[in-house]
Design goal:
single chain; alpha+beta; Alpha-Beta Plaits; two-stranded antiparallel sheet; two-stranded antiparallel ribbon; 2 helices; 25% helix; 4Fe4S_Fe_S_CS
């Protein structure tokens, strides 16, 4: 399951530097999470760091991108191998 930042985001800049996959970037108005890069921190941490640091709790599981822990781990492995090439 990729994560999603809701429209209530205040652009506090807390989440973007915490993302180990560089999946978070500034969109037109608020930060956005690229579902192709988001692994919910599987492979790095026990919990998504963006959720942990968000001061207003506007990061949720994206219902449009449902993935199992196994598929998130596979995505992580692919991203790590891609980064090394």
């Amino acid at each position: 399951m990729a994560l999603k930042i809701l429209s209530g985001c205040i652009n506090c800049d807390m989440c973007e530097p915490e993302c180990p996959n560089q999946a978070i970037s500034m969109g037109e108005k608020i930060y956005e999470i690229n579902p192709d890069l988001c692994t919910e921190c599987v492979g790095f941490y026990d919990k998504p760091t963006c959720i942990s640091v968000c001061p207003i709790d506007v990061i949720i599981t994206d219902p449009a991108h449902i993935e199992s822990k196994e598929s998130l781990l596979e995505k992580f492995k692919h991203l790590v191998n891609t980064d090394r090439i």
